[in-house]
Design goal:
The strands form two sheets. Strands 1, 2, 3, 4, 5, 6 and 7 form a seven-stranded mixed sheet that branches. Strands 8-9 form a two-stranded antiparallel ribbon. It contains eleven helices and nine strands. The longest helix has 37 residues, at 213-249. It folds into three domains: 2-101, Butyryl-Coa Dehydrogenase, subunit A, domain 1; 107-204, Butyryl-CoA Dehydrogenase, subunit A, domain 2, CATH 2.40.110; 213-362, Butyryl-CoA Dehydrogenase, subunit A, domain 3 (Up-down Bundle), CATH 1.20.140.10. The protein has helices at 2-12, 16-22, 27-35, 54-67, 69-88, 91-101, 213-249, 261-290, 295-321, 331-342, 349-362, and strands spanning 107-110, 126-130, 133-143, 151-158, 161-168, 174-178, 191-201, 251-252, 255-256. It is of the alpha+beta class. Bound molecules: flavin-adenine dinucleotide (FAD).
């Protein structure tokens, strides 16, 4: 496993700066990682996956995240799409779709719409049965990796409830338009998706029946939240390493920055942030791997704490590097922009707080 990690990180290391400034990842690299089952490494071996535990995949996600949050974001999307298919699909659908996601095809997951951000109960995309087909109409926004994706897992209204449907991105009626110049994770391929009378065979609907929308969304987001939490661990590792390295070599007032106590405090804060994020993410992954009833709360907590710590930690690291890190594309400059977005997605900071408050009062979320 160590060797495989080294191979993957070797493919990414040193290039994230260029990718960030170009706003684009090399698709060949994504397909290579995908064909090796690395972009959704928890998919079981029977579907061509690597069958990693959440904890193992978390560590891998953090390593990638410490190098490039855009590649890590693509991993989060691919993993979320694969998990949704694995969890909600029938045996036939799992057998049909998952080997494609472990074989080099790329996927994205679309919930958000112009009128449905934090409030996903407002999702308006419709999936309508018509004989042996389904017809999909709607609009999704800000879908990470959609620019690269071959398959789009789209959430919409279906029958009396809701469903996720697997849409090939080249199906007639699908239009994918990139978000121009996002604040961070600039090469992650965020895009809006328009679905205009997209007609697919009815077996594109995962599970084939309408389900409750909260159940559907919670299933997909559970994977996404743990993945983002580990991605934030990676951001913090990268920031702590860069800040420590800089503070021990750059001298001002006749001694290394690290020997000035106010700078030393920044380094201590960075270590605390990294440790906090790591421990909550490990806890969430252990809950996932053991099927603990605490899993939902632990997942929300991990995402909430890690994203918050990464946002503060990136700011702290930039303060330590000062002008040395204040260049577009530099690791800490990227971290500063990327981390902030992690407080907005997969349940914003405030939505996580509301869920945690619910748990505090009622013992459940
Ligand atoms: P709004 O819902 O309009 O919220 C605005 C602010 O108000 C936020 O601070 C929010 O926390 C706060 N707020 C809203 N309601 C409440 C409330 N009841 N109480 C307290 N505060 C509240 N979507 C996808 O479907 N797939 C993706 O892959 C994806 N990737 C993304 C990647 C990036 C980089 C970004 C920026 C977004 C992505 N999104 C994706 C969309 C993302 O999920 C939404 O941006 C997010 O859910 C917040 O919705 P919103 O931006 O519409 O903000």
């Amino acid at each position: 496993t160590e060797h495989a990690w080294d191979t993957v990180t070797g493919l990414i290391d040193g290039q994230a700066d260029d990718w960030d400034r170009a706003g684009l990842l090399p698709v060949d690299l994504l397909r290579k990682l995908g064909a090796d089952g690395r972009l959704c490494a928890q998919v079981p071996a029977e579907y061509g996956g690597r069958g990693l535990s959440s904890l193992e995949n978390g560590e891998f996600t953090a390593r990638v995240g410490s190098l490039c949050s855009s590649v890590r974001s693509v991993m989060t999307s691919q993993g979320m799409a694969a998990w949704t298919i694995e969890r909600l699909g029938t045996a036939e659908q799992r057998a049909a779709w998952l080997p494609r996601l472990t074989g080099g095809e790329l996927a994205a997951a679309g919930f958000s719409e112009p009128g449905a951000g934090s409030d996903l109960s407002a999702i308006a995309t419709s999936i309508r049965r018509d004989g042996d087909s389904v017809v999909i109409d709607g609009r999704k926004v800000w879908v990470t990796a959609a620019h690269y994706a071959d398959l789009l897992v789209v959430f919409g209204r279906y029958e009396d409830g809701a469903a996720a449907v697997v849409v090939p991105s080249d199906a007639p009626g699908v239009r994918v338009e990139r978000v121009a110049d996002p604040l961070g994770c600039r090469a992650a391929g965020h895009a809006g998706i328009t679905l205009d009378s997209v007609r697919l065979p009815a077996d594109a609907v995962l599970g084939g029946v309408g389900l409750s929308l909260p159940l559907l969304v919670t299933t997909a987001l559970a994977y996404g939240r743990i993945s983002v939490a580990w991605g934030c661990v990676g951001i913090l590792r990268g920031c702590r390493t860069a800040a420590a390295q800089h503070a021990s070599t750059r001298e001002q007032f006749g001694k290394p920055l690290a020997e000035h106590q106010l700078v030393a405090r920044h380094l201590a804060e960075l270590l605390v942030a990294e440790q906090l994020a790591t421990r909550v993410s490990e806890h969430a992954s252990r809950c996932w791997d053991s099927g603990s009833p605490e899993q939902v709360m632990a997942t929300v907590l991990a995402k909430h704490v890690s994203a918050d710590q990464a946002t503060r930690g990136a700011e702290t690291a930039l303060q330590v590097l000062a002008s040395a890190g204040a260049r577009d594309g530099h690791l800490v400059a990227r971290a500063y922009r990327d981390a902030k977005l992690m407080k907005i997605i997969e349940g914003s900071h405030e939505m996580c707080q509301l869920m945690l408050a619910e748990h505090a009062v009622n013992g459940s979320i």
